[in-house]
Structure prediction request, 188 residues.
Amino acid sequence: MPRQPVAIVLTTLAAALLLLLAPGGTLRSQDEIQPVRVTNFPATQQVAGSISVDGVIRHSATQRLKDILVSPVGPRETTRLIQAGTLATDGFTAVVLSLAGQTRAKAVRSGAVGAVLVPDDEAIVRAFEEEGMAQFPIEIAAPSVTGASLHFASAPERFTVAFPRYRVFFYNTTDKTANVNLYAYVTH
Prediction:
């Protein structure tokens, strides 16, 4: 018998044997419910108690700080910045920030409208408020707010988060008050 037909027959038999020995004897799709078996390892990695996953594990979430009124104030005037609340990032590793809004009237002096996110930690916030020292900040801005249009927006930017919550402070270097929206898409 020539070698090539023998190799084909042996390969076919091996493939058939693998299909027969597959769990359940058939191939399963990823959409089907599949059993899971937990194996305990040595004492350093023991699994105890019940193991369950309740509901869908969220990969991302969207938060929005809406219609924040931001009067003219420079980004380094930390005692005068507009406080807008907190952004929750616990359980996520990154945030994509986008900032948009509109000035109340056409700006005569162009400038930037932005947000500074400072970790919501007592010592870090105290250093920020008392000495103007922004430790571990995240900052986003719409850099060219001009009198040409009432509306402005930043480009979306992705940042790595290192704290479970951030306090949000807004600034506005134009000469007009602005309504600002901050969109935060937290993700992994």
User: Anything to note?
Assistant: Residues 3-45 form one domain. DSSP finds two helices and nine strands in the chain.
